């Protein structure tokens, strides 16, 4: 696969696997699926699927195999690593580690931080950049959810001045997975460094939509997920400074991470092998490398411009619907990705999402998006109310779990898709749903009643029935 030229006028439009798929409606009709759930997982780029299909006949074990196919597979795996390094502008001596996803990457980093590292994280983070820090040996300080990009820097400066003088890590998202604002990362990194702290950029949301330059931005660590970068084959990556990653025993212990083992000693291997114990996800890594190559070919700055314009269009369009509340961390001063979170008066979030799917073929996500503190803040839910909800959930009743609906966009999303969402919401605001729905209190989901849709025929087993799903990320 060759890179596409990043030259004005010479770009080809990105194509995605499954872009034209039609899905059944409860009415018995079927309609082209309007995918507005990119922030959770993106479809595969056609080039990525092609690269995987071309690589699969060559797939074999990596690193230890003497056979020719093993050598080709190893070269592809290591080639993918360099592709990822280049795409994110990482330093030559940065480790580039293949992991499962951003969650895995951040847990790996948390396991490698020096004893008593203080982690500073904002309350707006995804749980993946919040929970890994709550472990023995680390101290975590949560900063209040900022009300502007300037507030991010002010709060951080105050917190860094108060923090201890030992190792410190500022762990921050590149863009909100709930409301889409892009955070001021280069400025934040400069501030952190001026105060002796390092920076982890949770790039799960930013990476597929916006150019990231680890070196120019002064980011020390970057965590990303392939399945959000048009490469849904189960790999992610952690990039960054090698020293802390070799301080101690690795995150995973096992074959591949060692140079020599006796019954009472281990000689750990150098990076990256040291942090990649077990047989790696070679196909996933190749897919990520192919995605980086394809995205670089399309030109990330160009893709970002298009997506930011689409995001503004979507926000302006949805704001015209009576009774629709749009959520935002801050309204001005920062670019905003194509992520729009909202509620519509008269509808519970899970009900609205179910109706959009069942009657309009619009695929969105609803709930708290693995960012419970942020969503409680946006919905202005008091701690006492949150306590009641927590007790209800613990008792098996999810009927009152608060949340919002999130429409999220990416490559291949068009104004027509936004218009389809707008038309569906406008008709719901004006005339209500055209079907009946019942709340399942154990899941918190609304289900069409009756549910006439059935699964498509696929050469794999499909369990459960249509319309039943779980916690949203
Ligand atoms: C900002 C952010 N960070 C981290 C994650 C976790 O990513 P993954 O589920 O791929 O580990 C997500 C997923 O939605 C996210 O949006």
Brief synopsis:
The protein is of the alpha/beta class and 473 residues long.
Helical amount among residues, as a percent range? 25-40%
Radius of gyration: 23 Å
Low-confidence parts, pLDDT < 50 over ≥5 residues? 1-10
Multimer state: single chain
- The strand count comes to 19
Average pLDDT for all residues: 95
Per CATH, the superfamily of the largest domain is Type I PLP-dependent aspartate aminotransferase-like (Major domain)
Structure explained in plain terms:
- With 473 residues, this protein is α/β, with parallel strands linked by helices.
- The protein has helices spanning 46-55, 68-87, 102-112, 149-162, 185-194, 214-217, 242-245, 282-298, 300-318, 349-360, 372-378, 383-394, 415-431, and strands spanning 22-24, 30-32, 34-35, 95-99, 117-122, 138-143, 168-173, 198-202, 221-225, 236-240, 258-262, 265-268, 324-326, 339-344, 362-363, 365-367, 404-408, 437-440, 445-448.
- It folds into two domains: 22-44 and 299-448, Aspartate Aminotransferase, domain 1 (Alpha-Beta Complex); 48-297, Aspartate Aminotransferase, domain 2 (3-Layer(aba) Sandwich), CATH 3.40.640.
- Helices cover 33% and strands 17% of the residues.
- It has a seven-stranded mixed beta sheet, sandwiched between helices.
- The chain is built from 13 helices and 19 strands.
- The two termini are 32 Å apart.
- The chain binds pyridoxal-5'-phosphate (PLP).
- Pyridoxal-5'-phosphate binds at residues 101-103, 126, 128-129, 173, 177, 202, 204-205, 225, 227, 370, 473.
